[in-house]
Amino acid sequence: MQPDIPLLQQTILFSGIEAEELRHLLTCLGGSVRRYGRGEFLWHAGDTVLQAGIVLQGAVDAVQYREDGAMQLVARHTAGGVFGEMLMAAGEASPVSVLSPEGAEVLFLPLERIMEGCERHCEGHARLRMNLLRESAQKFWQMRHRVTYLSEPSLRRRVLLYLQDCRSRQGSDCFRLSLSREEMAAYLAVNRSALSRELSRLQQEGLIEFYRNSFRLHFSPEQLSVTEM
Question: Which residues have C-beta within 8 Å of that of residue 95, sequence separation ≥ 6?
Answer without folding.
Answer: 45, 64
